[in-house]
Amino acid sequence: MLTKGFIAAAIASALIATLLLIDNVSIAGASATSNGIIHFYSDQSNDITGATGPIVITGVIGDYGTATSIDKNGTVNVNGNYEKVVLKKGTFIINSVALDKSTSNAQPTINSSNCSVSESVSGSVSLFDGTGAYAGIKGTLSVEVTFAGIIPTSKNGKCNGNAQPLGVFGTITGSGPVTF
Where are the alpha helices (DSSP H) in the chain? Predict the structure, then answer.
């Protein structure tokens, strides 16, 4: 004869087994594909002429690390059209060819009375070649590049746009949908 204790134990065991099965299915499903919006922020102020800068990503990805300018062969190049993003949980590449075309045609605003300069350019980039937690990443993001600075004056008192800026501020921000 079955006792109440035996029946309660059997129900509890079945419930635990069901919860474990549901948990394993949801974990397997979550690791297969993630979809959502990301937002990224990269401060270029400390080394505006360098190849590497910090990056923070929020949204469906919550991670941080560095972004390094590279050429299409993966060689570090301050003028590269790609960015290798190295985060704590994985890496991916950003193709910024289209954005770089927009920035090459941009004309900064220069105030000749105080030699201040500013520029803001928008465009799009695509993500690919992910590793680690970002394996299989794909997406197209809208991006804005903002730069401001103070340039020195020449001996004749005019702004010297060919010289190293005296003070700079630069950011690259963007957002868009990704899958991985």
Answer: 4-32, 97-104
54 with 7, same domain? no
What's the pLDDT score for residue 30? 43
Give the Cβ contact number of residue 150 at 10 Å: 15
- State whether 48 and 21 are in the same domain: no
Query: Same domain, yes or no, for 16 and 43?
Result: no
For position 104, what pLDDT does the model report?
84
Domain that holds residue 68: 33-179
Under a CB-based contact definition with an 8 Å cutoff, are residues 64 and 43 in contact? no
Residues contacting 104, CB < 8 A, separation 6+: none
pLDDT value for 102: 83
Q: Are 35 and 177 in contact (CB under 8 A)?
A: yes
Residues with pLDDT less than 50, the chain: 1-31
Same domain? 7 vs 85: no
* pLDDT score recorded for residue 171: 94
What's the whole-model pTM score?
Answer: 0.76
90: left (phi over 0), alpha (psi -120 to 50) or beta: left
